Amino acid sequence: MLDAQAAERSYHDALTMATELAMRPLAAHCHAGLSTLYRRTASAARSQEHAKSASTLYRELGMTHWLGPMEPSRTAGCHSRGDRSPSQSSP
């Protein structure tokens, strides 16, 4: 299993490359990944910072599908990418 520091380095390296290459969708995903990582390592302020950056990019790019995981109620607690909100649950 990859440790948190290695994951953080990888996300930051990817974010740097995405920014240099003007790959804004990838940059948004990197911010979302960092938000999740920091949330799971109890760094709430850093998690919120990256969630806000990801949300801003997703909105600017019209990638509203990806906003769900970045909602404040979702970033407050841990969840996996496969979690579904009650409104998305099957009857």
Number of DSSP strands? 0
Q: H/E order of the elements?
A: HHHH
The biggest beta sheet reads: none
Q: Which word captures the global form?
A: flat
Number of discrete helical segments: 4
Q: Output the structural class.
A: mainly alpha
Quaternary state of this entry equals single chain
The low-confidence runs, each spanning 5 or more residues with pLDDT under 50, are: 73-91
Number of domains: 1
- Give the strand content: under 5%
Radius of gyration, in angstroms, nearest whole number: 13 Å
**Portion of residues within helices:** 55-70%
From the N-terminal CA to the C-terminal CA, the straight-line distance is: 36 Å
Mean pLDDT: 81
Give a written overview of the molecule.
The chain has one domain (4-74). The chain starts with a helix and ends in a 16-residue tail after the last helix. It is an all-alpha fold. It has helices at residues 4-20, 24-40, 44-60, 72-75.
SSE blueprint and pairings:
Elements: H1 4-20, H2 24-40, H3 44-60, H4 72-75
Helix pairs in contact: 1-2, 2-3
